[in-house]
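Q: Recombinase family protein, please. Structure only.
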Amino acid sequence: MKKNYGYARVSSISQNIDRQIVALKDVGIHDEYIFVDKQSGKDFNRPNYRKLVKNLNEGDCLYIKSIDRLGRNYDEIIDQWRYLVKHKHIDIVVLDLPLLDTRNKDNEITGKFISDIVLQILSYVAQMERENIKQRQAEGIRIAKAQGKHLGRPKLKPPKQFSKVFNLWYSGKITKAEASRRLNTNPHTFARWAKEHENTQFLLKNNEKR
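A: Structure for Recombinase family protein:
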């Protein structure tokens, strides 16, 4: 007997999945046939999605609210789509995008054919957007460098009590780990502050001698 399944996904536990569940129930899918994952869609290595695929049999139909609930990477979505449709011989319906419906149409042009075309277009658009983002990032970095702007996170500045703690460390009275703890930082940052402080003191002494 053919069955209808639903799949819903959010990227984290804190996100609300109710809207997807309601949409799946509205098309007649019962709770026991709805599979939910609360994790990133970067790949298909998701526990409940794997359980869903194992349950799918030839002739079954899988419903999802939108294509990005299946995954984020369109290349992987296309591979997974073809595996489900052409290997497991199931139908897929994307509720928010009626063209992504592999069930046969009245005009004898199969939904599988139309869906393949739509997926290829979506994949192309997604790839172009990724390339545009990379290009904009590269241009932004180039312009920032040309303007002499510092890229990345701003460096932490030493707190007011740094000199006192530095002197204790420099005189060997406390360790670097203890100095870092007193300044509420890590040894790497403390070492950078210490080096900058020593360089500053060295320049000041040289200026005084002139």
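A: Brief note, in case it's useful. The chain has two domains: 4-128, 162-209.
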